[in-house]
Write a structure and sequence with these properties.
The complex is a heterodimer of chains A (365) and B (381). Chain A has 365 residues and is an alpha+beta fold. Helices cover 50% and strands 15% of the residues of chain A. In chain B, a hairpin with a 2-residue loop joins β2 and β3. The chains are: A alpha+beta (365), B alpha+beta (381).
Chain lengths: 365, 381
């Protein structure tokens, strides 16, 4: 049902958005998301998302995906973020699916995860017979490794960017989580061999840099959705909660939290949407926009969570209330595909190259 | 929220290129007293040149000398002017708001009399809203007009009237009917007042940085003929609220300190930036880029016939705080004791921003008032 035809069109597929809103809204109830705190994911939500084909949007149909544009995939991520969907959506689609498709590897029927690449990782790849690749070492912060069917990674074999895909059963998984309770496992490869049909040269547009940019874009979209939902939740709560005989939203001090939280949300959503639009047109040319969007998203996540929690008071400090599904994810996602100062520096160096007279044209590009 | 990503069309990009070309030729770096955004000086000659290009009163109807252009077209021209720190002071208020409210609320006679010279860049307006005892609570203004033969006698004092000493007219919010309990928004009117009228006295009030241009305007029995009551008598509050909406959400609310970063970059050319400087520059550039996209989408919404008052309040509240944050980040980065007399333009701009920066979040509606407007709108969903 979520199948769309591959296109470079940059209009937003409203039908797709409506059906994603409906599906995530129906499945990601408070109870379902809360139940996922224990296991780290919600198999029934994954099932529904997979059946509808949402996980493979943006991956070409001829590669086994659902088709559609990168914008479509990003919009679905935004909606998933707004519902705190506890599933490896970005990993299966615009990260893992993209990697596999780029190397002509088969897309599995189940969830895919990827090796995000963080400091301290020791994953090494060596070329073997008939194009096979032997993998050894450790990869950390691998999302939902426990639940995924396959792990994809972008490695270097004989100096060439190469995509590998191995079944989760072939590696050792030590559970670890992020502050939102989402699985970010440590995976050890003990001489695992990715066979001929599990390894392939990446297409020219795939590189460590483009992978990281895609990861950053995926997080900016998820964060935009989460901040939008958090703002709406806070507005609703403060209109209903009465203290001193009136809704607390009537107090100017509380209004400040509402306004600042709404600004963080709209700024991030705008930045992420423009970045997705540009990335869909020309991914290599969208480095500035993606870096700027993640810069905005990371800073906004830090402030938006402060304002939302302050406006909620003690009510927001328990797991019995929905705010933590969003705020804890924002605290986690701001660090993913982002080291301190990384994206501001990318934007800053672009601005430096543009020079004084080129700065405004860059901003207004 | 109705914000939606938008981008410039081909004809809009052509306009942008045309404005850039004009400014590069007309105001090469170092050739003019670069200002902090809308805090620019008056240069009536420059205003006339812009008008000759069709860039003043752009959105006003052709029949009154305007150009029937869109809010986005005006946005394009204005962002280039402000990012250059161009001397736009003389026509600024007339172009941003007075022309629009005269066109919207004024009589046919008023439109024919005022709009053509506004569009030629030959008529400068000031804003006559604030008083010594009425700032954010504008409905409490005590300037009053009393009936006289053929018109009104205006008495009262307006303050913080930027440009009154150099401009030609101002729009005065005043009481034309006595205040009745519980109906403070009634009985207010807007009067078009010639700043050279007998009985009108303009006293300069030095701004924090010592610059002139901030004024007190004292009116003692200033005669205003009936035909200069703007729009409808007693509808001043609604008209004034609508006028304030034109002051919100545009590039003037997030570009005031742009020149500081641009000049910082100019000084650094030839030497690679350090990591901290690159990160600061990237932080500011990212937020400018995102804010501009929000602000541009507000202009697009206006062209679609929407009334994005919550959206524009959100942008203004955020944009003006950001302007101040930019200054703070720069002074945390650069070893500098800012001096207004410095030979360096960068240092002079920093010194001016240190002293005038607090006004960014006050002028045209304080951020506290904006929060109140915006949060009520958020509550309506």
């Amino acid at each position: 049902m979520a199948e769309t035809t591959a296109t470079t069109d940059d209009s937003v597929d409203q039908l797709l958005i409506d059906s994603a809103e409906q599906m995530f809204g129906q499945t990601c109830t408070f109870d379902a998301v809360q139940a996922a705190e224990d296991e780290g994911w919600a198999p029934e939500i994954w099932q529904a998302v997979a059946e509808a084909g949402f996980a493979w949007i943006g991956v070409p149909v001829d590669a086994g995906g659902s088709g559609g544009t990168l914008i479509d995939a990003c919009e679905v991520l935004r909606i998933a973020g707004s519902r705190a969907a506890p599933i490896p959506l970005a990993e299966t689609g615009i990260l893992g699916g993209w990697l596999l498709a780029s190397a002509g590897l088969e897309l599995p029927g189940g969830a895919v995860t990827i090796v995000p690449g963080v400091s301290g990782d020791t994953l090494q790849a060596a070329g073997g017979d008939n194009g096979s690749v032997s993998l050894s070492g450790r990869a950390q912060r691998v999302p939902w490794a426990r639940q995924a069917e396959r792990i994809a990674a972008l490695v270097t074999v004989d100096g060439e960017p190469t995509v590998v895909s191995v079944p989760v059963g072939s590696v050792r998984v030590e559970p670890a989580t992020n502050v939102a309770g989402e699985p970010r496992d440590t995976v050890t490869f003990d001489g695992v061999v990715a066979g001929t049909d599990e390894a392939g040269a990446a297409s020219p547009d795939v590189s460590a840099e483009s992978f990281r940019l895609r990861g950053a874009l995926s997080r900016a979209m998820l964060m935009a959705g989460a901040m939008e939902a958090m703002s709406a939740l806070t507005v609703t709560y403060t209109a209903e909660r009465e203290q001193f005989g009136r809704p607390i939203a009537r107090f100017q001090a509380v209004q400040q939290h509402l306004v600042w939280g709404a600004q963080d949300a709209v700024l991030t959503k705008m930045a992420a949407a423009v970045a997705a639009r540009e990335a869909n047109r020309d991914f290599a040319g969208a480095r500035f926009e993606i870096a700027a969007a993640k810069t905005v998203a990371d800073e906004s996540a830090s402030t938006a969570t402060r304002w939302a929690h302050q406006a909620h008071g003690a009510m927001g400090m328990t797991q019995e209330y929905a705010l933590h599904h969003l705020s804890r994810r924002l605290w986690a996602w701001r660090h993913e595909y982002s080291t301190p100062g990384e994206w501001p520096a990318v934007v800053g160096r672009e601005a430096e190259s543009a020079g004084a007279d080129g700065l405004y044209p860059l901003i207004a590009s | 929220m109705k914000f939606a990503p938008t981008e410039l069309t081909e004809p809009e990009r052509a306009l942008q290129a045309e404005v850039r070309e004009f400014l590069a030729a007309e105001l090469p770096p170092g050739s003019y007293p670069r200002a902090l955004g809308m805090g620019a000086g008056n240069d009536p000659e420059f205003s006339k040149k812009l008008a000759a290009r069709g860039w003043v009163g752009m959105a006003l109807p052709k029949e009154y000398g305007g150009h029937d252009r869109t809010a986005v077209d005006r946005f394009i021209v204005v962002e280039e002017l402000l990012s250059h720190g161009a001397p736009i002071g003389y026509h600024w208020v007339a172009d941003r708001q007075t022309g629009s409210i005269i066109n919207r609320f004024g009589t046919e006679e008023q439109r024919e009399r005022f709009l053509p010279p506004i569009c030629r860049g030959e008529l400068g307006f000031s804003i006559g809203m604030s008083e010594p005892d009425s700032g954010s609570d504008l409905a409490s203004v005590s300037t009053r007009a009393t009936r006289t033969d053929g018109g009104w006698l205006l008495n009262g004092t307006k303050v913080w009237t930027s440009g009154a000493h150099e401009n030609d007219w101002f729009v005065v919010l005043c009481r034309t009917a006595p205040l009745e309990d519980g109906h403070k928004h009634q009985g207010l009117s807007q009067l078009l007042v010639d700043l050279t009228s007998p009985g009108l006295e303009i006293n300069g009030i030095p701004f924090l940085d010592g610059s002139p241009g901030f004024n007190e305007v004292v009116m003692s029995d200033v005669f205003v003929p009936d035909e200069l009551v703007l729009g409808e008598l007693g509808m001043g509050w609604a008209q004034n609220t609508s006028e304030l909406a034109y002051e919100r959400g545009g590039p003037d609310r997030w570009l005031s300190t742009f020149g500081i970063v641009e000049e910082f970059l100019r000084l650094s050319e030839g030497t690679p930036l350090g990591d901290r400087a690159a990160e600061m520059l990237g932080w500011a550039t990212s937020r400018w880029w995102a804010l501009r996209n929000l602000s541009l989408s507000v202009a697009r919404l206006i062209d679609e016939g929407q009334a994005p008052s919550v959206e524009s309040s959100l942008v203004k509240e955020m944009g003006t705080r950001f302007e101040q944050d930019v200054l703070q980040k720069v002074i945390e980065l650069v070893d500098l004791e800012p001096s207004p007399e410095s030979a360096s333009l960068f240092e002079r701009l920093v010194a001016a921003a240190v002293q005038t920066g607090p006004s960014f979040t006050i002028r045209g509606g304080t951020i506290e008032i904006l929060r109140s407007v915006a949060s009520k709108g958020l509550g309506r969903g």
